[in-house]
Amino acid sequence: xxxxxxxxxxxxxxxxxxxxxxxxxxxxxxxxxxxxxxxxxxxxxxxxxxxxxxxxxxxxxxxxxxxxxxxxxxxxxxxxxxxxxxxxxxxxxxxxxxxxxxxxxxxxxxxxxxxxxxxxxxxxxxxxxxxxxxxxxxxxxxxxxxxxxxxxxxxxxxxxxxxxxxxxxxxxxxxxxxxxxxxxxxxxxxxxxxxxxxxxxxxxxxxxxxxxxxxxxxxxxxxxxxxxxxxxxxx
Length: 235
Ligand code: FES
Hints:
The protein is α+β, with helices and mostly antiparallel strands. Helix content is 35%, strand content 8%.
């Protein structure tokens, strides 16, 4: 991907990615760091929170705020897989395709999702709601077959259960992951990630949403059962 010129064909300025409110957040984030370059990743997540991926225009705006060259933004931004370089669905559904999960039925889960969503792994639905991918090991092998939706874990899923989860998200219902957190849209997660440094420090017992880790809290439905090592495929 190249950073294109900032003028469009009709020579009209490209519309701003960051509105005044987000621009103010960007400047507040940048001000937190003695070296402005350190704010690069949060600001790219802020850009991603607008359109769901890091646009060329967004990179140019980050370069301007941080007084960096667009090439410096591009080289850092293209390194991280959580920063998306092309349009992606509101919900990224990742089904593990590594050994444990494949042995315990992951292919059936992928097939069920492909059939339901009408896309193949690696594609995004035409309404922009779901992207489906076959992922490498999600590091929850004893919860195989394992899947994530926007990096929230679900264990021991069957094809029917995976479909039920995306159906619920499609209806706008709250879906809790195995750690009891609601699955957020990719734009919400990007904004939370970008602005995490602006929020007050977490105190001892406060529960702060995170994108990783695991704090099983309850049996909240399909895919949220405790891990059952050795349990066989159930569909
Ligand atoms: S093999 Fe699927 S999570 Fe590790």
